[in-house]
Specification:
Layout: H1 2-70, H2 76-143
Length: 155
């Protein structure tokens, strides 16, 4: 019986270590996936900002060319159009930046949650191992006592 208990404790220990190792590998992969997703979103947002800037330059060039052709260079209409274009462009840039920052923070919080979950799983595995060891020790301790004979002596 003690041999079986010792084998059970050994198997439980090996499985606990393997479980903790697998959880750590999983957490590393989740972190890497989160980094890749964040980098991809950042690149996409950066491309969107460049596209917006290109469009702004094209519109500005059209406005300036139109003003030049009509002889209204320096007019309040030209200044207002260019100002509105700059304002819209900056609004779009601010929105894109805030989205990028929000996505980064979401990724960080998801990673922190995954890390906390990993710690909880590890402590649960260690607690399970401790219970297995305790049970095995209790059953072994109970089986090593010398049984007493129940003998009645005649008088």
């Amino acid at each position: 019986m003690a041999v079986v208990a010792a084998i059970a404790v050994g198997v439980s220990g090996v499985s606990t270590v393997a479980s903790i190792d697998a959880s750590k590998r999983s957490a590393r992969r989740q972190k890497r996936a989160s980094e890749i997703q964040t980098n991809s979103q950042t690149a996409a947002n950066r491309e969107k900002m460049f596209q917006t800037e290109r469009e702004k330059k094209i519109r500005k060039a059209r406005i300036l060319a139109s003003a030049e052709n009509t002889g209204t260079t320096g007019s309040s209409g030209l200044i207002g159009s260019v100002g509105a274009l700059d304002t819209l462009s900056e609004k779009n840039r601010a929105f894109t930046t805030s989205q990028t920052l929000a996505n980064i923070e979401i990724g960080n919080l998801n990673q922190q949650a995954a890390d906390a979950s990993l710690k909880a799983q590890n402590f649960q595995a260690i607690g399970s191992l401790a219970m297995t060891v305790g049970s095995a020790a209790a059953s072994t301790a109970g089986s090593t006592t010398t049984p007493k004979a129940n003998v009645t002596v005649p008088q």
